[in-house]
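Good morning C.,

I know you're traveling, so I'll keep this short. The sequence:
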Amino acid sequence: MKPALSFEAVYGSHNYNLNRPDSDVDMMYYYNPSFEDLYNGKQAEDNIQDGSTDRKHHDVRKLPNLFYKANVNFLEILYSCSVIHYDGLYDLLAAIREEISSMNIPYLYEGCMGMYKRNYRNFQRDSHYVSPEDFKNPELNPIRARKHASSAYRITDFMKRYANQGFKDFAKAIAYDPQLNTDKVFIDSYMAMRDGKYSYVEMCEILKDQETIAEELKGYFKESKVKEDVNRYVIELVEKHVREQLALELTK
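The tokens, ready to paste straight into the viewer:
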């Protein structure tokens, strides 16, 4: 049995205003588990067959843990530029999105730095072609390298922007306004990096400078209190939603 959708939301560059006309639209789909899923101990997405890298499928039961671990890729769906609702769950979550986003700032630091380091390693790897066995399409390596570099650049800039606002405006920290001079400076630099207008050495210098700034913010992130009450509320909210959806399914 195919699970029922709860909501679908855009994630990625369109949410940051860093997309181009030819940019793919990345989507996340969230499903309510069926009685069969619960009975068989499965996640709702186990029933979805989709080989696309632009679409991600998740069970709504994962949301409390994903939010508590402050995974910025999942927090951003609460601020998505485009959402399609199939029930009321998304609106309930979006109503407290600032509280959810700032629920676990210490863990957000670790998650963002982990993303930075992973993208920086991948940038280094794809900047140095090794052999056809390692990379099937060597001509794509520079493009991949620049994509990793720009992702590392963006996540550290987000950390700086969010900290500068006292962790109070996630939407303003994650999305750039081309009408603001300070935002435009970053957009231009980000696009230049994607387009290969910086040398390898220049990109390394930019990213290492960003890393230093992010590391200097560690204490500020770490001193923030974890909001356990918000975590409990989100858990209860999602549990109640799942129970209600199951009740509807079983009465059909």
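Safe travels,
E.
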